[in-house]
């Protein structure tokens, strides 16, 4: 899988920029504040499926997100869907990203483990700070779970993000599902507190991921 690592920087920079661009719209509304999920967000959820989605790359994946969040399309070709808090205007979000890697359509478990677990820094965007890395599984598929912070400037605004990023393979496709909070860079401590407030919700959302084709 070593050759496939040339796909690294560009796509992940686009992924981060797309999130920052969306979040920056709401920055003027409230910055340097600590946010908490609504209690109902853990129990009142909406089902989303990538089955048949034109950007899913053939992946059939089901997950749930809070009913108070809004599901949004993205203009970027590898971002299947975005889910944004406060009915689409909040500073917390999740998104599904997919990419085919030519020559690795039938990736073995051993190859997936090597790709995902050999060098965690591969999955970090430039100018980011790693917090943790964990080997895990998604429906029995090997997966990598990373937590990191990054600072980006979009439209003259400097913004800090803290991310929980899950990577795995299914149906010959590289899948990344990320969960993040963001705010103005000078509100860094508040971003960290907000992230901790949302951690249980993010983990709960992650636990709803199902790959139906695996169980047929």
Quick summary:
With 216 residues, the chain is of the alpha+beta class. The protein is built from 4 helices and 9 strands, in the order αββββαβαββββα. The strands form 2 sheets. Strands 3-4-5-9-8-7-6 form a 7-stranded antiparallel β-sheet. A two-stranded antiparallel sheet has the order 1-2.
Q: Which regions contain 5 or more consecutive residues with pLDDT less than 50?
A: 2-10
CATH class wording: Alpha Beta
| Shape label | globular
Number of domains: 1
The name of the CATH topology is Protein Transport Mog1p, Chain A
Contiguous helical run count: 4
Looking at the chains present, what oligomeric state does this protein adopt?
A: single chain
Strand order of the largest sheet: 3-4-5-9-8-7-6
Radius of gyration: 16 Å
**End-to-end CA span:** 28 Å
Mean pLDDT: 84
Order of helices and strands: HEEEEHEHEEEEH
Describe the largest sheet: 7 strands, antiparallel
Give the percentage of residues in beta strands. Answer: 35-45%
CATH architecture annotation: 3-Layer(aba) Sandwich
> Which structural class do you get from the secondary structure elements?
alpha+beta
CATH homolog superfamily: Mog1/PsbP, alpha/beta/alpha sandwich
Helix content: 10-25%
Number of strands: 9
Provide an overview of this structure:
24% of the residues lie in helices and 37% in strands. It is built from four helices and nine strands; from the N terminus they run H-E-E-E-E-H-E-H-E-E-E-E-H. The strands form two sheets. The protein has a seven-stranded antiparallel sheet with strand order 3-4-5-9-8-7-6. Strand 3 (70-72) and strand 4 form a beta hairpin. The two termini are 28 Å apart.
